[in-house]
Amino acid sequence: MFVSENQAEGNLELTQTATADSTDILLGEKNSIIKEGDLREPFASYSTPPDTRESGDLARNGVKQDSRDIYKPKPYRFGNYILSPTTWKGRAKVKPAWEKDSGNQCAIKFYWRSMNNEPMNYLQNIYREVSILRGLRHPNIVQLLEMVETERHIGIVTQYCSGERLEDVFRRHRYLKDPTARPIFGQLIGGISYLHKKGIVHFNITPTNVLIGYDERVLICGFGSANTFDPSSENHDVLNKESTLFEISIPYTAPEVVLANKFNSMADIWSCGVVLYKLLAGSIPFEEDLSLPSTHAWTQSELYHRFMVNTHLTFPEYVTPHARDLLRRMLVPDPMKRATFLNEIMTHSWISGPAHLVCG
């Protein structure tokens, strides 16, 4: 679907001046610019730009206006979708939107068609993300609705999640007890296990890419680093490593990715292990304040991962024995010795048998 952009007709005109997380608006009321009350407004009024005359002009013409409407921001169109006005920058940002005819709420992840200093495979990586999402149907994975292309932007339209990021949960709670953490983690590994069966590695499992709805359903998003592999192969190495733009999220990135440039499905298991550790312990594993001399040949990421490879995994006293055993199996620096989803994790005593686990 290709749509031309025309600011004079009220269509999208975005400027690059502010930053936002890549999951900004899949999340619900508190993170949205358009609040819940705006959903009750008739969408027919958004088919053209709202009246932008000054309040004095309106008064002189006998138009009664609420003082709050004087500063009401102008909505924007992107194809057949209504966006709240915003300014942003970066490779991709996500904003809330509504389908103009039906009023159904969704989320649109925006990419600029051309970005300064981006590698040659920038667009190829975007189309791979869309191709991967198009083949996914799982209750714990965000669903692709469509892709909209314009002269300057590519928009990936997905379902909307009214809730919050897992990162927001961490900000409110020091840690979670097993009965609370178990359904969250069970849904997470159910979704990732489904991906691996389909021959897909996520590669960026972090608390910002795990959404929790008000119905307590977990949604995995953030597929910009995802890639494919052959599920029947022995090592599960990705097929297009050279053409993929990977995002390194310390400390959720597996050590072999940073230290050995090795990309396979076992990296997702490490990342899920770090998420589980933080759920139960309230901190990241191998947490250390490492200062890196400016003359050192290693990057901060390399130094941290070398530290974790050579450091014994420890736990706060409140982490239960069954949880410790599972984490010791997942957070193994050697990917060949790391636990697998089907054989060890999903059948482990800490998590086996919960009704919330959906394997796909």
TrEMBL record:
Compositional bias per record (Basic and acidic residues), positions renumbered to this chain: 51-65
GO BP annotation list: intracellular signal transduction
Keyword Metal-binding: no
Listed transmembrane segments: none
PROSITE patterns: PROTEIN_KINASE_DOM (PS50011)
A single GO cellular-component term on record: cytoplasm
Region annotation (Disordered) ranges: 39-65
Protein kinase domain location: 80-351
InterPro entries (alphabetical): Kinase-like_dom_sf, Prot_kinase_dom
One function term, GO molecular function aspect: ATP binding
Superkingdom of the organism of origin: Eukaryota
UniProt keyword annotations, A-Z: ATP-binding, Nucleotide-binding
PANTHER family: MAP/MICROTUBULE AFFINITY-REGULATING KINASE, MATERNAL EMBRYONIC LEUCINE ZIPPER KINASE
Full protein name: Kinase-like protein
Organism: Lojkania enalia
